[in-house]
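TASK: fixed-backbone design
INPUT:
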């Protein structure tokens, strides 16, 4: 059982509008990301909302595998959303993939990560395109406790990645989307052109 935590709590100040609600192939970005994770078989899918929660919530799929968590401390940083999402992940999962709503992924990418993790003794698997590390990272079950305690001071997921560098496998992908970050209107326009 692979769980997913979809981080969708940010304010999107650099974008100038909620990134969660950007159009992505005819759907809202939060909808498209959720559907990709569900299509990859992720259960549960924990969607973490915060800023704009009331506007974003109606666009989260109504699905029995989806759980919505509201992070009221979203202003304190991304680590607070990772903690909130990880704490909602059941302890019996085999792994958890942590996805930022503004870093588009696909079911096929998540499936490749899951296959790699299950066929190895890796603790973390990370997609890579060319010479660039991408996203989303997938963490083995043994790291869920660490995900529940990440901090801004420790740089969130970076701290876990550094601490388990020897247990990390990189998976080469032929999809440049794994390196995208939709942080600004310009980045969003470039991403849409790639589609």
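OUTPUT:
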């Amino acid at each position: 059982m692979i769980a997913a935590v979809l981080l969708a709590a940010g304010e999107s100040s650099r974008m100038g509008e909620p990134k969660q609600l950007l159009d992505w192939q005819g759907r809202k970005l939060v909808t498209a990301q959720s559907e990709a994770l569900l299509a990859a078989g992720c259960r549960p899918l924990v969607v973490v909302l915060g800023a704009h929660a009331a506007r974003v919530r109606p666009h989260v799929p109504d699905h029995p595998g989806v759980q919505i968590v509201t992070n009221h401390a979203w202003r304190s940083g991304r680590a607070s959303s990772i903690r909130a999402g990880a704490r909602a992940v059941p302890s019996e999962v085999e792994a958890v993939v942590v996805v930022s709503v503004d870093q588009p992924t696909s079911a096929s990418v998540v499936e490749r990560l899951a296959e790699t993790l299950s066929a190895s003794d890796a603790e973390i698997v990370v997609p890579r395109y060319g010479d660039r590390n991408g996203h989303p990272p997938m963490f083995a079950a043994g790291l869920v406790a660490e995900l529940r305690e990440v901090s801004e001071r420790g740089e969130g997921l970076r701290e876990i990645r550094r601490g388990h560098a020897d247990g990390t496998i990189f998976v080469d992908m032929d999809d440049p989307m794994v390196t995208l970050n939709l942080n600004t209107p310009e980045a969003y326009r470039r991403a849409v052109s790639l589609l």
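COMMENT: The longest strand covers residues 2-8.
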